[in-house]
Amino acid sequence: MHVDMTLGDPHVVTTTTTTTTAAVDLRLARVVPSAVTVRLYCKGNLIQDSRCMRIENIGAEEFAYLTHIIDFYDRLAPITIFTLGSIYNDQWKFLKCRKLNFVLSQIDTPEKRARFSGFATMAHQAPDSFMEFEGYFKLESYRQHAGGPNAPACRASKFPLDKWFKEFVNVSLENARHIGVLYNPIFAVSRERIHRFPKADYEKLIQEVLRCKDHEHAGVIEAGHFLERSWKAMFDDLRPDGGIKCCGHFGQKKGDPMCCGFENNGETIGMPWTICKAEWPNCSGFVHNSGWGTCIAAGLPPREDVCPEEIQANSHKAKAHKKPQQSGT
After folding, report:
1. Number of domains composing the chain
2. Which DSSP string corresponds to 72-141?
């Protein structure tokens, strides 16, 4: 089986990108090594890698993702994994690395690939996280880092999110609200799911991103943030029961402590409809103050949600190497 690995790194710096490439290769060794194709999209000329497919430094990952879909639309791999390049980032307990690890764990054997549903992601901080589709979201300005100045965003042609979504994505807003969104877009998707939308739809989306080509240094691209919040609704399926966001297992009741073993600071279940029903009894992925969980069937094995130790160790080494040397006294 041929699995494409598509990388689009919003921050193109030599050290981060080259070490990230090594980490991705290391992790991909679990997925049919002899059959994996890595398609490395490199922005600018700082990255020196023989596999680089050069693209303009526009926006964040969305430009690389759309470029790949459009260029390979008629010859996509059966499964494509789209990932950010910056999986060495140690924020949120190596969140991006954990996301990639989880996605790969869903397709890392022939048996898993044979029964692959067509889409896999870790929406936020844990497998089965549920993050709400907030149609009112818009991005007028953006801080590049904590405490930094506000930079004006390059605005989308329509906003807020729900108006933009209706214009560019052929999925109902009702379904989008039930399916939810993902953040830090790392996901696996089948060729058939990508082909749910004609090539012209992706070309329309990339033109929406390219509207901001001349404004790249004035801020971020609002449409890119809208697209980040649209991938899941585009490629994931609506659950037969409409999907249930949760903070309580079947059998709990209003007033009980929120579920799932996290410290809840005395928080209790306030809405009975956030308790799982008998047919999907377990609330999985709920992290207090960070989104909801999803109700899942009983007896499912634990999801793999770790960042390999060798990647964490290499990240710490890279950080130590970049620290300025202290002068002797």
Report:
1. 2
2. TGGG--SEEEEE-S-TT--HHHHHHHHHHHHHHHTSSSHHHHHT--SEEE--SSSTT-BB---TT---SE
